[in-house]
């Protein structure tokens, strides 16, 4: 294995296409265009409908209309929200479409093209040996599904994404657990599972311990590995307010994301929108995957500068001595060499934390999607504890979550790691112990399918194929599953590439603002929202509400065990079951009458008393990461005379929601289309590559050609490309305790088109 090159500044060089601020007038322009478009009126009707925003986990009120937050403040909806809504308002796909377009043709569609087909409007099936999806009647779907679910429970699995409701999630897991299957894979396995694992171990809770109200009292936020201007835009307003109050924002990110430097927010039209508001007070750019070392450096400096809260550690934590000892005894040389950030910069950040009154530590995928994601989160929590910033107003640890209801799925028990209290409640309901067989998380599910161990798969939303690394493996694995049932609102590349061996069924469903019943969702800030009934614009369509499908299927499999499933078509009964079984969710039992949206009990900690056996936070040491990269030969390159190995961050562009692409360009990074790689000029020059030159990018299982090089404010040694396209070329290690893939540190070899010969041909 080669060693990681010591990086050299500058990392802040902008390319010419990048604007000077994130956000700003393009957002207003987008709003104007959408408002004036033919679907403008419907977009506004939807924005005003009493349902929570579809897009991210920050969330908006259901009952008070979409323009209020949990504090009752009037807020704006960001353009991401409009992007998601307008995609759902597309016309339905004509019934004849799938009969005139073969699967082979559909497999050639890009993610943007697949989404642009419109809304799924009729159930279709692809039968073994056939080349076309064909219409299928409901009754046949139930017959195939019922037979498929009668397989041995360990050969039946589900995958879900976090857009559906709590009610659908609860039904899904109850149906699966009643069968005796724990195979409840979920997109959170690819996302915040390391946060869930680490927070549970340290604090005995699995979610953010900071409420929006508490965040508003912070005078410092440490924001690590999160590109919030793209993915949680309204969080930016809170950051702006903190800066306006004289507070500090410390950003930790190998890429200088322009919106984290300066962001023009429409929420402050006079002061922010055009000039932009300063966001980062301090911007640290570590080597990707090195956050443990960086946070250990901050801990060390807190100790050296006398900011460590020893009496707090003694009173409220366990295991702190070893953590302090590790920080003290690890040399500055080791720390700075691993993370590539200087001692002086780390000391400045530590001083900012140490001199602040209340610090919130927030993070997202740049922290979790690493082979040591759990250690990353643990090192953040350790830093928060050493500085005495957990269990008081305005402070704490805050994973910034993904999908708008991904956290609700976890609360409802859609997880391979179920909470003890919930397990006990479910066992009481089912009148039997839950199966002891460990369920498959998302990566384990793909491996199990690839090994021929899965017969039946139901996917409640999402894009299992597109979200996984190594697209060829995902395709091959899914093709070994006998029957796959997709419930989805929109078509995606997974529906055309993730095909089963016997039958692949796509069931079009209604989305959150169209359901004929009420539903609830949970935000990343632990707030439960109630969504009203709605209607759909799709006429002449044959859509099946998620709850109707799940209750009917469960009824056919289980009859009346352990509940009268058909009665649960009235979702208030599901809410009553949730209220009786899910810890902290008691208030949901009466929400239909009270309409009172609520913060989940026992989640927000404003006192340093935690939910561990001892009531103390359980700190533990975090091993330093080994960040060596493979040699070109190990990546299958024979002649490495031109080109170089980089560590690739695979992430979202400005205009995409996970595997769904809305627009091809990413203007804030100056990347005009999706076949681009963002790298530092210094790296490009080392490899003899000019800006805008086309290169080949090789991962360990494939290669993409014709990739345009864009110079950007990326750390030397690192690069950035967009998923899901890039998932074709790599397989990466998973974080062992959580199963999350190391999507943010993908070894690649990049070379000009002419350069180098391959040791062996790649699969692509
Ligand atoms: N509009 C929109 N909103 C979304 C989504 C979407 O796709 N579109 N997706 C939703 C979902 S499911 C999720 S999980 C979230 C994702 O939200 P984010 O986590 O913000 O999304 P990513 O695009 O993965 O960006 C990760 C950031 O981490 C940085 N990073 C990479 N490696 C490292 C590292 O080693 N250390 C540090 N400190 N930083 C690093 C990257 O440079 C990048 O800025 O957003 C949710 N909201
Ligand atoms: N390389 C790389 N890979 C990654 C990541 C990365 O950063 N890099 N990030 C990972 C992360 S954090 C995540 S969360 C996953 C995302 O993985 P998924 O959640 O599996 O994927 P999405 O693209 O969000 O799924 C979108 C589809 O959901 C369906 N859908 C939308 N709304 C509804 C609804 O109301 N009901 C139903 N039934 N279906 C609906 C639509 O059909 C839409 O096409 O990807 C992961 N993969
Ligand atoms: S920040 Fe998230 S929840 Fe709020 S409007 Fe934007 S996408 Fe919706
Ligand atoms: Mo996610």
Automatic annotation (TrEMBL):
GO terms for cellular component: membrane. Pfam families: Molybdopterin, Molydop_binding. It comes from the Bacteria. Coiled coil: none annotated. One of its GO terms (molecular function) is 4 iron, 4 sulfur cluster binding. Keywords: Iron, Iron-sulfur, Metal-binding. Residues 1-20 are annotated as: Disordered. The keyword DNA repair does not apply. Residues 119-486 form the Molybdopterin oxidoreductase domain. Residues 646-747 form the Molybdopterin dinucleotide-binding domain. NCBIfam families: Fdhalpha-like. This is Oxidoreductase. It comes from Merismopedia glauca CCAP 1448/3.
């Amino acid at each position: 294995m080669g060693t990681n090159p010591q990086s050299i500044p500058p990392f802040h060089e902008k390319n010419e296409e990048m604007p000077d601020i994130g956000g700003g007038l393009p957002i207003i322009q987008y709003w104007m265009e959408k408002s004036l478009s033919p679907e403008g009126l419907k977009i506004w009707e939807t924005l005003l409908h009493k349902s929570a925003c579809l897009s991210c986990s920050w969330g908006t009120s259901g009952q008070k209309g979409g323009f209020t937050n949990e504090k009752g403040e009037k807020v704006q909806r960001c353009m991401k929200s409009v992007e998601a809504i307008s995609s759902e308002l597309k016309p339905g796909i004509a019934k004849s479409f799938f009969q005139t377009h073969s699967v082979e043709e559909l497999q050639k569609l890009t993610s943007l093209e697949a989404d642009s087909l419109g809304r799924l409007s009729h159930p279709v099936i692809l039968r073994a040996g056939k080349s076309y999806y064909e219409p299928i009647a409901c009754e046949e779907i139930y017959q195939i599904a019922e037979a498929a679910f009668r397989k041995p429970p360990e050969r039946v699995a589900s995958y879900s994404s976090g857009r559906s409701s709590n009610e659908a999630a609860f039904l899904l897991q109850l149906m699966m657990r009643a069968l005796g299957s724990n195979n409840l894979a979920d997109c959170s396995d690819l996302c915040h599972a390391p946060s869930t694992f680490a927070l549970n171990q340290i604090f005995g809770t699995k979610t953010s311990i900071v409420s929006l109200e508490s965040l508003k009292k912070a005078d410092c936020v440490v924001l690590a590995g999160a590109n919030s201007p793209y993915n949680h835009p309204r969080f930016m307003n809170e950051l702006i307010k903190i800066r306006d109050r004289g507070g500090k924002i410390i950003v930790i990110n190998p890429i200088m994301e322009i919106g984290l430097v300066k962001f023009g927010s429409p929420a402050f039209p006079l002061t922010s929108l055009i000039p932009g508001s300063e966001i980062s007070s301090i911007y640290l750019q570590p080597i990707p995957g090195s956050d443990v070392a960086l946070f250990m450096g901050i801990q060390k400096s807190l100790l050296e500068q006398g900011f460590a809260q020893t009496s707090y550690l003694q009173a409220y934590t366990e295991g702190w001595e070893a953590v302090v000892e590790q920080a003290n005894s690890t040399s500055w040389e080791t720390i700075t060499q691993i993370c590539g950030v200087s001692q002086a910069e780390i000391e400045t950040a530590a001083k900012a934390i140490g001199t602040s009154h209340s610090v919130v530590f927030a993070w997202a995928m740049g922290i979790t999607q690493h082979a040591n994601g759990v250690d990353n989160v643990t090192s953040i929590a350790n830093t928060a504890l050493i500085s005495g910033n957990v269990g008081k107003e305005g402070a704490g640890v805050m994973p910034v979550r993904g999908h708008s209801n991904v956290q609700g799925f976890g609360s409802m028990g859609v997880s391979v790691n179920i909470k003890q209290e919930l397990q006990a409640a479910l066992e009481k309901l089912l009148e039997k112990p839950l199966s002891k067989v460990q369920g498959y998380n998302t990566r384990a599910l793909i491996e199990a399918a690839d090994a021929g161990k899965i017969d039946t798969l139901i996917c409640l939303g999402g894009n299992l194929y597109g979200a996984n690394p190594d697209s060829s493996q995902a395709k091959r694995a899914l093709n070994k599953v006998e029957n796959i049932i997709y419930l989805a609102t929109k078509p995606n590349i997974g529906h055309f590439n993730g095909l089963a061996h016997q039958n692949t069924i796509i069931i079009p469903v209604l989305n959150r603002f169209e359901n004929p019943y009420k539903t609830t969702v949970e935000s990343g800030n632990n707030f439960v929202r109630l969504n009203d009934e709605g209607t759909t614009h799709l006429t002449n369509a044959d859509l099946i509400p998620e709850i109707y499908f799940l209750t009917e299927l469960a009824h056919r499999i289980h009859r009346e065990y352990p509940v009268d499933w058909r009665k649960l078509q009235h979702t208030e009964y599901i809410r009553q079951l949730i209220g009786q079984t899910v810890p902290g969710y008691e208030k949901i039992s009466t929400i239909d009458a009270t309409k009172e949206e609520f913060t989940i009990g026992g989640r927000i900690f404003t006192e340093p008393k935690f939910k561990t056996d001892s009531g103390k936070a359980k700190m533990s040491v975090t091993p330093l990461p080994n960040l060596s990269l493979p040699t070109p030969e190990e990546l299958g390159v024979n002649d490495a005379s031109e080109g170089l190995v980089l560590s690739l961050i695979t992430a979202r562009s400005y205009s995409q929601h996970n595997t769904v692409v809305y627009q091809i360009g990413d203007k804030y990074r100056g990347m005009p289309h999706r076949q681009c790689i963002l790298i530092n000029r210094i790296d490009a020059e080392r490899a003899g590559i000019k800006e805008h030159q086309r290169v080949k990018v090789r991962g360990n299982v494939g290669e993409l050609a014709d990739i345009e090089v864009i110079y950007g404010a990326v750390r030397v040694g690192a690069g950035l490309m967009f998923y899901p396209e890039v998932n074709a070329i790599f397989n990466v290690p998973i974080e062992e305790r959580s199963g999350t893939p190391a999507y943010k540190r993908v070894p690649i070899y990049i070379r000009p088109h002419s350069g180098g010969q391959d040791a062996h041909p790649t699969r692509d």
